[in-house]
Amino acid sequence: MNKxxxxxxxxxxxxxGCAVSRICTCYVGGEKNKISQTNQSFGTxxxxxxxxxxxxxKKGLSGTLGKNLFTLDFPLESExxxxxxxxxxxxxxxxxxxxxxxxxxxxxIIESYPYTQNYLILLADCNYDIPGRGSDELEMEDASDxxxxxxxxxxxxxVLSKPGLTYAPAENLFMDRICDWVVDAPAHAxxxxxxxxxxxxxxxxxxxxxxxxxxxxxxxxxLLGCTMPITAGVQKEAFHTMLQETLGEDGRLEIVKNIHxxxxxxxxxxxxxxxxxxxxxxxxxxxxxxxxLEQPKLDSFGNRFDETVGxxxxxxxxxxxxxxxxxxxxxxxxxxxxxxxxxxxETTSIDGRIYLLIEVNDQIEVNGIRLTAxxxxxxxx
Length: 381
Description:
alpha+beta
């Protein structure tokens, strides 16, 4: 799913565009025990309660593609009897009214979800009459020919509210507030089937993890039968390690600047794409070639890529070249540069020692104090 498709689904969890028809909950204790369960038509809930649930659902579709949100493809075997995809399809087709399937679903989560505190399993049955679109991309409500029917599950921590003082009108006093168990924003969520090309995609699902580095790969595999891609942090660390080992003692600031600039230029070219830019091995090697690495180094990097992340892996450009800053670090000095002006930093050798050379304009501040930047003439001998 791309950004546009996720945004369209996110609108289903508003008062105006609500697509939720049924809602089920299972409150799980820290000892993996079921404390309470509900199953009811969403339209029977009080308006304020509906709004709270819709807010939770929307938060489970937030974040960045490739970091918090992942489109996962089901392996073919999971679509047969006893497979994860087949089970989810049966659960969806039951419209959440098969208690036996619901119990089995809850048990699968409780058995494999590694969270050790109280949490709420929040499950919704949703229906969206997909409006058609004309050549001008405007929606035509009366041109729909498909209903997107899906289930959406959020796993929300249940935490104690913070202690404090509260005003009691009856006593006209401020008193100690009683701590309540409160449902927090989803830590993990998934949507099945996926909404791809504005249509039902039974072969994929959308998975959300609030913490981009704690995606619970084993849980995803046990529940959904899908394999998670490499996380953003692992991609960044792997790329840096591969590049550092490839460069060895030949590592130069100029090459690293070129790599950073090339990646940033590519991201700028693709910034309006609905799917974030990702690079396979050959595309990354091409970036390195443009940045000044010679063929033996390129071959060495390609081999390390295969060994480290796999020959078929793809790396998000935003993960391996953060566009927010360009940082130069020594044990005692850290310099952060506007990523668009990395050209201001270079290295130079003076009397056999390596120095960082930074071009400055007429604006310099040291500890908040503005100084005058004037080129000094060398002293005459």
